Amino acid sequence: MPSSRWLSVALCIGASFPLISSSAGHAIAQAVGAQSLRIETTAEEAESTRYNNEKNSSFHRITDYIGDHIALDLGAGFNAPIGNDIRYITWGGNFTVGGGVHVNKRTTLLAEYQFIGDKLPGGLIAEAGTQGGHAHIWSFTLDPVIELFPERANGMYFTGGGGFYRKVTSFTEPGQYQNYVVGHFSSNQGGVSFGFGLTHKSRWETNMRVFAEARYLFLNTPPVTATDGLGTTELIPVTIGVRW
After folding, report:
1. Structural domains of the chain, with CATH
2. Overall average pLDDT of the 87-93 stretch
3. Residue 127 and residue 233: Cα distance in Å, rounded?
4. 118, 81 contact by CB (below 8 A)
5. Do residues 102 and 68 touch, judged by C-beta distance below 8 A?
């Protein structure tokens, strides 16, 4: 009887062994497959992270190079007449765009284009016998910028320079769709400007600063006694913009 009992136990174990082996093999296969999937996912994530880091690194290298060596600015604002010029020109707007180089952390040299568009006073328009008028000024100048606190988030700078200015004074009459010019005179001359500004460093782009500046502008336009002149031009352009 004991021998018969042990024989029965051995037969049961022998019959169960294939099932146990099959289950163990299946479990091992599942574990290996899950591990392989985790390895593949981790590899894909690492590759994606590496690509994004390289992409961002390249972008930042380019923007950092531009910010460290190449200067850009873009701004717009308004102009106020001063002195004797108040009789011959009124308030208006301006637009400025420029580029240049950063000589060092404190000094930048900019080449700037500026457009100024102002209205004419009513008295001058009445003297001309028309119903409207404007004065437009185009300029190309070289303007150094000296930063006082280049490392601070909030800074201050002085700027000034000069170059070529063209001024056109036009008198207009209303038309069906727009005003048309009935008379004008123009002059080309040199001019200078100087002033100061305030800056604030952007928290999103380290090389970008928002700026606000005011300058004194003087143009040696023809005198009133000349057929094409209204005397020298003096304005205070105030400009707000961004600079790299």
Report:
1. 70-243 (2.40.160.20)
2. 90
3. 19
4. yes
5. yes
Percent of the chain with pLDDT over 90: 40
- Is 140's pLDDT higher than 90? yes
Letter for the amino acid at 75?
G
Residue type at 126 in one-letter notation: A
What span, in angstroms and rounded, lies between the C-alpha atoms of 15 and 22? 12
Phi, psi dihedral angles at 224 (to 5 degrees): -60, -30
What does each C-alpha distance from 126 to 120, 132, 224 come to in angstroms?
10, 9, 17
Contact partners, residue 113, CB within 8 Å, separation at least 6: 96, 97, 98, 138, 139, 140
Pairing assessment for the beta strands 107-119 and 180-201 based on DSSP bridges: unpaired
**Alpha-carbon span 144 to 110, nearest angstrom:** 6
Tokens 């091992």 belong to 28
Q: CA–CA separation, 194 vs 99, rounded Å?
A: 18
Task: State the Cα torsion 213-147-189-113 to the nearest 10°.
Answer: -70
